[in-house]
Amino acid sequence: MQPAVINIFEKAAKKAGKILTRDFGEIENLQIESKSVGDFVTNADIKVERSILETLKYYYPNYTYITEESGKIEGDENVIIIDPIDGTSNFIHGIPHVGIVIAKMADGEITDGIIYNPILNEFFWSSKGKGSWCNDRRLRVSNRTNLTECLIGTGLPFGDRIYKNYLDEIDGILKATAGIRRLGAAGLDLAYVASGKLDGFWEKDLNLWDISSGILIVKEAGGRISRINGDDWSSNCRDVVATNTKIHEDLIKKLTLL
Ligand code: IPD
Ligand code: CA
Ligand code: CA
Questions:
Q1: 3.40.50.300, 3.20.20.150, 3.30.540.10, 3.40.50.10950: CATH of 4-138
Q2: Which residues of 230-258 are buried (b: 16+ CB within 10 A; e: fewer)?
């Protein structure tokens, strides 16, 4: 059974998801304003976030909110993290790999999280100790043990996000695996690791709102999370590796020996 907090996140996400879906259908009419290369803020991002905040603040008026579009709203020690549209570039291009991400954090640990793709009607959720779910289906990471059979997700850097050895990383992983996917929404990409669709994922230069729920959803589906150098992940880290657990050491080795 879904805990109360997930019910409330679901209510907020499904209401806001209607706005997202409507705008997705009218994509060419959207006014697009460019924040920096590849980092677009659309009217939709702002409208969707406003709607989510309106619902959540009714139930949790005193919480602290960390949001992509409105910044930080100071409150008590309970923290809710929001990415109104993860995959904005996909959204702008009419590619239906987009998600609304809402997570709850206590003492730096993600305890509850949802990722909702309103276009495909996929509602991913997890609470600590309750497993991970997509709609009514329990999620489980893949069973693959050989990197050579594994499909690995990543986020390719672009513009001023380019870092020195990214081509070496791609080269090393392509040679060692069954291929790479750059799907374009880090949160959903993690949900795909939890679903066993991707066997692993890595990315640098992320924000907490991109991956907050995804971190928990991977762990609760039997996966493993760490930093790229193998250290424990914490909420102030900007890089992440997520796997089905079995290939974790091998993937880290490939990424760090470059
Ligand atoms: C982005 C997506 C993308 C990732 C970027 C994020 P946004 O979030 O998750 O996959 O590569 O690092 O910024 O801007 O679409 O919310
Ligand atoms: Ca994002
Ligand atoms: Ca976003």
A1: 3.30.540.10
A2: eeebebebebbbbbbbbbbebbbebbeee
